[in-house]
Amino acid sequence: MLAFIARRLVQSVIVMLVVAFIAFLVFRYVGDPLAALLSQDAKQADYDAARERLGLDQPFYVQFYYFVINALQGQFGISYRLQQPVSQLILERLPATIELAFASATIALVFGVLLGIYTALRPRAFSTGVIMTGSLVGVSLPTFLIGIGLIYVFAVELKWLPSFGRGEVVQIGWWRTGLLTQSGLRSLVLPAITLSLFQLTLIMRLVRAEMLEVLRTDYIRFARARGLSQRAINFGHALRNTMVPVITITGLQLGSVIAFAIITETVFQWPGVGSLFVNSVAAVDVPVMAAYLVFVALVFVVINLIVDILYFIVDPRLRDGARTGK
Amino acid sequence: MTDLPHSPEQPVVAVETSRWKTFLKSDIVWSYRHSPVTIVASIVALLLILMAVFAPLLAPYNPFNPATLNLMDGFTPPNSTSFSGKYFALGTDSQGRDMLSTIMYGSRVSLFVGFMATLFAMVMGVGLGLVSGYVGGVVDAIIMRVADVQLSFPAILIALLIFGVARGIIPPNQQEGAAVWVLIVAIGLANWAQFARTVRGATMVERQKDYVSAARLLGVNPIIILLRHVLPNVLGPVLVIGTISLALAIIEEATLSYLGVGVPPTQPSLGTLIRIGQQFMFSGEWWIILFPAITLILLALSVNLLGDWLRDALNPKLR
Questions:
Q1: What percent of chain B is modeled with pLDDT above 70?
Q2: How far is A260 from chain B (nearest CA, A)?
Q3: What is the distance between the alpha carbons of residues A140 and A27, in angstroms, rounded to a whole number?
Q4: Do the beta carbons of residue A250 and residue A199 sit within 8 Å?
Q5: In 3D, which of A269, A209, A217, A280 has the Cα closest to residue A245?
Q6: Mutate to test the interface with A, among B145, B148, B152, B287 (most CBs of A within 10 A)
Q7: Which of A37, A72, A107 is the last residue of a domain?
Q8: Where in the cell is it found (chain A) (predicted)?
Q9: pTM of the entire predicted model
Q10: Which of A97, A195, A229, A279 has its CA 20 to 30 A from that of A88?
Q11: ipTM value of the model?
């Protein structure tokens, strides 16, 4: 298992280096960093001085080396648009995105698994048909339209929930949380549901397909023959064996959730990292774009690693070193 | 598929009419006739496409001609007559633009970007997939690793990034004209990997077959083998992915435009219209957002359903 994780770690480092290289190319060659930093009437001498001060006259690989060193320390320079350190900007907005992502992942996991089990155990029921058709329609609708629809129904017409922002927040150290106030929680509901719907349908269909598969196997028939209760069979035997693919997909989806949060955050004007990225793209704020790229890649790589380790915990067959490849 | 006049199953003597009859008796037409959902979806998609293509002829007003706009006509509700005595079936927006005409022109932009982006992704993906599957080795490994990495990131994120980079490279005074093409390239580049993967798999299967070995022994140029012999045999799955990817491209374009990084406001697509309409949702002017949203949903849903049907019809083994 250690060898397997070590190999995975090496792979992750390579992926991160490649992404850092792309981010570096974007950072260095898109737009002119000097033009963004110096005032309009700067003289040639100022340019040369600034170029030397920022190390832009150094060879390519030296610049990349410093980019990686700085990135490792979380330094991505200063945002052109907001004139603040990028790391500080991202750190300030990270709690909002993480709270949103985890809230939506929880909703997706809980309801996805429950609905998946329900539809698998009653394959011919009318309610199953309704749920399955609904999920198909939900998948083919763009996320932002679902968000707008929810705003229209629950904020504009019914006036139950706020339509934008995070509500009141509480500062705990550097973490600004919206989970401790009533208005913060109310503000979280609509964005979290919007973000969760896509994953929810995915998890539901996956659990359903896996359950249907497992329920047909011999050991389930044998468990029935032994006279075990339906509940013990469904949850103790069947559900447990559907968990490996579910964990994979959920884990891998958590990365896309961070990225899909871009859309949800824009719809609900949620002050997270995603809306920061969209605004940066619109304003060609290159340092923020480069930093976001590295950040998202890091999230993906870390999640992949955690998912791999979770396999060992969930599936005992892998634990004895029976499988060491990928 | 296209022009294969000398394939052994189809005798050269077959005249046009009998070929048409054979087509009508084929499995694919049978499955089309027996799927009411598909028939409805294809009619809806066709109507929307026709409406978009012939927008300049069909639209009751020209929404982009400032001379015909009257601010007094702004916020006219649907199916009513405005202050200046004009009739608006779907109402007007804040500037007095006819919503029906704006939607027609908007679908035109959406469909154009969608089709071109899918074409771009298809050409690039099929080309790289053919090379990857036929040549194998290091080339294959590199192309497929890039595709793997790209597939693990959401397409919308990649499109956003490419869009931002292009914005930084293109000089500001040319940006408005180039925006549509930048969007097409960004969405196309975000979607090529699906094509490449499928075509690579199919090509590896075809490469083992005797007709390819025979062509190779005859000393046919590998490029000719790929394009004339292998390509027609891998087109089925490409068509399926193409349809599904068209629906995706339309949604991606709408999303980017909704986020405010898509087409310029002078050429609003459906996504831009929804973005604008959202501002008026809170003050009760629901029609400004509702009709573009419905059009987008119908478009995405009908193309998606067609893609699903095509997948099942061309590949009965699935499901």
A1: 88
A2: 8
A3: 35
A4: yes
A5: A209
A6: B152
A7: A72
A8: Cell membrane
A9: 0.81
A10: A195
A11: 0.77
